[in-house]
Amino acid sequence: MSRRLGRLWWRALRTLGLPGLLGVLLLLPALGLGLWMPLLNRQADDLRGELAAQVAAGARQGQAAPRARSGREPAVEFAATFPALSQSASDLGEVFAIAQRRGLALPKGDYLLKAEPNAPLVAYTLSVPVSKDYAAIKGFVADVLEALPHVALDELRLSRPNAGTAELEALVRLTFVYRSP
Q1: What tens digit of pLDDT does each residue of 54-76 get?
Q2: Is the pLDDT of residue 94 over 60?
Q3: Of 17, 44, 66, which one is at a domain's C-terminal end?
Q4: Which DSSP string do the residues of 119-140 spell out, in sequence order?
Q5: pTM above 0.70, yes or no
Q6: In principle, which of 16, 73, 79, 172 could form an S-S bond with 120, CB 3.0–4.6 Å?
Q7: Looking at the structure, do residues 16 and 60 belong to the same domain, yes or no?
Q8: How confident is the model at residue 107 (pLDDT cuts 50, 70, 90)?
Q9: Spatial distance between the Cα atoms of 110 and 93, rounded to a whole number of angstroms
Q10: Sign of the alpha-carbon torsion through 63, 66, 72, 77
Q11: CA dihedral sign of residues 28, 34, 36, 37
């Protein structure tokens, strides 16, 4: 049997050539899909009919038909899961408390509030320089991200000014996401 298939394969290859044979092989799935589409369309029509019947039966029983949601509702619901912008001061206090527990000093920081018009969320960015060993910096960032789930780590830049020390200089940039006021 396999010998017969091998001869048939080589004869088709000689007759049609490689491009022709590849064309035939690509045409077969397309033909199968073309024959299968009417069946899928009939099944989809049946399902639409069943759904319409269920909605009509629910309406007869006094149940409201399920309403279609507007495209904006999911975004509003998503934005409602974030804290209000008024919480930013207490969040910064939490960041400073975490830094103190980790033995880090945050002597200065750059703050930037980004609010787009008509956007449901605002971004409050904090950039702080930190000097300590790697474990303390990593622990600080991990603790902040765990304590404040609406905070994202945008940048963590590490440098070692002196190869002989274990202390690193780092720039940590965090973005706090809040609901628009």
Answers
A1: 888 777 776 655 565 555 677 77
A2: yes
A3: 66
A4: -SEEEEEEEEEEEE-HHHHHHH
A5: no
A6: 79
A7: yes
A8: confident
A9: 15
A10: positive
A11: positive
